[in-house]
Amino acid sequence: MCYLPKFKSPFIFANFNGTSGDVDVITHECGHAFQGFVMRDEPIKEYLDITMETAEIHSMSMEYFTYGWMEKFFGERKEDYLTMHLEDSAAFVPYGCMVDEFQHIIYENPDMTPKERKEVWKRLEQEYRPHLDYEGDPFFGEGGWWQRQSHIFSSPFYYIDYCLATICAMQYKMKMDEDYKKAWESYLALCRLSARKFYVPMLKEAGLKSPFEEGCVKAVVEHFQEKI
Ligand SMILES: [Zn+2]
User: Among 38, 116, 152, 207, which one has the highest count of C-beta atoms within 10 angstroms of its own C-beta?
Assistant: First the structure.
């Protein structure tokens, strides 16, 4: 999603290939687009200048807010999609944290050899993704997977922003399971806050807990465990 200020309009460019990934993309990008649309008449440009740990709450939460329409895409296999989506979001958090920890280690140790870097990744994988089995693949099985994570090359330390946003989006899922309308009102308030405030006070004002707050992640995990 790009915002076109001259036209006061969000614009989504995507290519679709007929998989469930198309639905992930359109609901996610429509979250970004919706927030851009809500702010279209904001004269102070700096208020539109949101950072990723905020922007990705708008998009990831929209993925949950649209659950009620999934039948239109998947018919009677709607539940399969929803289960997969919940599982993917939950499994993403440890993976995202792992990508972050990996970057901390390699930046703190710039003299590492390629082999040492792969060993770090392999060790972290055993810690964060113990369910993975590469069945002896000579490249991925030896810690090579990080090389396909483009953010490590193009946007260092972006990944932890996704994790922070995921935990907030998951809180919206919790809220909407309780009261959809109230959850939406809080979401709309968050979209309107945009970049007016810093992260933690902004979350608070919208009625979310900070992911850094003791017990926040635990509550989210318990709710999702029940759902999945
Ligand atoms: Zn996004």
Answer: 152
Res 52 pLDDT > 90: yes
For residue 112, how far is its CA from the centre of ligand 1 (angstroms)?
Answer: 32
Q: Is 132 a member of any domain?
A: no
Q: What angle do CA 190, 66, 213 make, to 5 degrees?
A: 40
Domain residues for 31? 2-88+168-208
Tell me how far the alpha carbon of residue 49 lies from the centroid of ligand 1, in angstroms.
15
**Three-state DSSP class for 139?**
coil
Banded model confidence at residue 113, pLDDT cuts 50, 70, 90? very high
**Ligand 1 center to residue 204 CA distance, Å?**
22
First to last CA, the chain: 30
Q: What mean pLDDT is predicted for residues 15-26?
A: 96
Tell me: the pLDDT tens digits for 162-209? 999 999 999 999 999 999 999 999 999 999 999 999 999 999 999 999
The structural domain count of the chain equals 1
CA of 77 to the centre of ligand 1 (A): 25
Is residue 130 in a domain?
Answer: no
What HEC string does 126-144 produce?
HHHCCCCCCCCCCCHHHCC
- pTM for this entry: 0.91
Is 215 a residue whose pLDDT tops 90?
Answer: yes
Ligand 1 centre and the CA of 54: distance in Å? 10
Q: How many angstroms does the Cα of residue 30 sit away from the middle of ligand 1?
A: 9
198 occurs within a structural domain: yes
Provide the 8-state DSSP code for 3: E
